[in-house]
Write a structure and sequence with these properties.
Blueprint (H helix, E strand, L loop, with lengths): L9 E5 L4 H11 L3 E6 L16 E2 L2 E2 H6 L4 E4 L5 H13 L2 E4 L5 H4 L4 H7 L4 E6 L14 H7 L20 H24 L3 E6 H8 L1 H10 L20 E4 L4 E4 L4 H8 L9 H6 L1 H12 L4 H10 L4 E3 L3 H4 L3 H6 L2 E6 L2 E6 L1 E5 L2 E3 L12 H8 L2
Parallel strand pairs: 1-2, 1-6, 2-5, 6-7, 7-8
Antiparallel strand pairs: 3-4, 9-10, 10-11, 12-13, 14-15
Helix pairs in contact: 1-7, 7-8
């Protein structure tokens, strides 16, 4: 797609693993030129972060999915000559992103004050684990660790079970997304005022913000939210909210009045249950539903629930989801062209003027843009 909104914007990405690279990826999808600064011979540590030993050439599949549509400039920040090139690139850039621990970029001579002195209009955006202050600031900002210390793991799973983390790196993805929001806001302000900005995000703050509903309740009453012991779906919501086993799978039940649900599924034991009862006897109501719903198939229950306008869906794995016309109609898959084949991954979820954003440009080989960028700098 031509005429993307960030065409002409140059982003320097000093990032590794997931949070920072995911932010730069979204900017690239929106048209920015993203130049990934990597250590010669090694590159982004995410290049070797294999998941189930899935590799593309010498790099991990994860690296390829999160770094598509970028260029790579290999430079040693401890080498005076390479650092000089980096500073030249900074002078031409619009945005600089990094996700190193506090102090790393400062020691390299590339902290905010130093970069702003080179380019006062630059948007300097950084992601840390815990912020730049406090006793945890130098600890590793790893997603599972942040899910654990922010209480997020205690929102998932049943009340009698151990804490359960998300099955994805939710903190990394949220922080990357919020960094993009900050960058776009700063670019709009710069268009008006000609001034740059420092944008700071931490995984801890992102995950606390993610839990604003639960935390606000806790601030109000001082009580820790209680997960239901049976089919927990949300610690603040009453029955039937949760996942239920059926004869051949599982279904999800969202918010609904218990009498309406009882009528739809022909469950007389719950036909007189009030909203207050659904809160005070949440586990008892859920147990009755669990015993009832296991008697018929998922398709049987979904048909009856939808006929009555109740919020329910079947629980699908990816294989079954991909057979659904609703999934196919979204056209969320795209192929990346690589030497000797292709990789199928997801596209940018944003549509612009009704058009989906596809790109078949793969992640860069380490240092693939050195020759081109050095020629541009020497003009």
């Amino acid at each position: 797609m031509t005429d993307l909104p960030l065409e002409g914007i140059v982003v320097l990405e000093f990032c590794q693993y997931l949070s920072g690279p995911s932010a730069a990826l979204r900017l690239a999808d929106l048209g920015a030129r993203v130049i990934k600064i990597e250590k010669p011979g090694v590159g982004d540590a995410g290049r070797k972060l294999a998941i189930k030993n899935l590799w593309v050439d010498d790099d991990s599949l994860l690296y390829h999915t999160i770094n598509r549509n970028k260029e790579s400039f290999a430079a040693d920040l401890k080498n005076a000559g390479d650092l000089g090139y980096i500073k030249q690139l900074i002078g031409k850039a619009d945005v600089l992103i990094h996700n190193f621990r506090p102090g790393v970029m400062d020691r390299a001579g590339l902290g905010y004050a130093a970069v702003q002195a080179i380019n006062p209009r630059i948007i300097y955006a950084e992601i840390s684990g815990y912020g730049k202050e406090g006793p945890w600031k130098d600890l590793p900002g790893q997603d599972l660790l942040l899910q654990s210390i922010t209480g997020l793991a205690y929102t998932t799973g049943n009340g009698s079970s151990a804490p359960v983390p998300f099955g994805i790196a939710i903190g990394d993805i949220l922080a990357g997304s919020q960094l993009v929001q900050g960058i776009l806001a700063a670019l709009i302000r710069r268009q008006k005022t000609k001034t740059g900005a420092l944008i700071e995000i931490s995984l801890m703050e992102s995950l606390l913000d993610f839990q604003f509903e639960l935390l606000t309740t806790y601030f109000a009453n001082g009580q820790q939210p209680q997960r239901s012991d049976i089919n927990n779906g949300h610690p603040l919501l009453n029955a039937p909210y949760g996942l239920y086993q059926t004869k051949n799978g599982h279904i999800a039940l969202a918010m609904m009045e218990i009498p309406a649900l009882a009528a739809a599924i022909d469950c007389p034991a719950l036909q007189d249950a009030s909203k207050e009862y659904a809160f005070s006897e949440r586990d008892r109501v859920k147990q009755v539903l669990a015993d009832h719903l296991v008697k018929q198939s998922s398709a049987y229950w979904i048909e009856r629930l939808h006929e009555n306008g109740l919020w329910a869906m079947e629980v699908l794995d990816w294989e079954n989801m991909m057979t659904q016309e609703a999934y196919r109609s979204l056209q969320m898959e795209q192929a990346l062209t690589i030497p000797g084949g292709k990789i199928v991954t997801t596209r940018c979820p944003i549509r612009l003027n009704g058009k989906r954003l596809f790109s078949d440009r793969p992640a860069p080989a380490l240092g693939n843009a050195n020759k081109t960028l050095l020629a541009e700098l020497n003009k």
